[in-house]
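Data card: per-record layout.
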Amino acid sequence: MMDDLAALAGIDPVVFRRSYLTKHPRVQATLNLAAQKANWGSALPKGRARGVAVHESFGSVVAHVVEVSLDKGQLKLHRIVSAIDCGLVVNPLTVTAQIEGAAVYGLSAALYGKITLKDGVVEQSNYHDYPVLRMADMPPVEVHIVASSAKPSGVGEPGTPPIAPAVSNAILR
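The structure for this 173-residue chain is written out next.
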């Protein structure tokens, strides 16, 4: 919806979001870091587009910039640049791994996720019949951590919700 409103206003999606985040410095800093590291606003190869989304939960803020293209109607993921403000970080490798995993599960849900029922019973029982993106299908994921002195906060779940909106926003650009 933010991208739709930005388009109606004739404003870049990141610039549009920034204008509404002046009273939310953590969210704005996270968005800014993701946009900067993704080179938001720079030219892309023909047929590629970037989408952005930012989300706050579990005391953390996550922004994703996703670069995609469509090839004969098939979505191709090229790159994910993520930024997270999860307060004081004790182990940056753990934060990076959690955001990478969140990207995998968020993309899996967005691209393939469905639960089906047969005779009132869920048919999917485990990973053998619930598709999860494999490493070969994943684009590179770059994770950047916002320097923060806030209390430590969640890193397991906050990276999942903004992935699908970032992909959708990229497709629609």
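Known properties of this structure: The domain at 2-172 is CATH 3.30.365.10 (Aldehyde Oxidoreductase; domain 4). The radius of gyration is 17 Å.

See the next section for split statistics.
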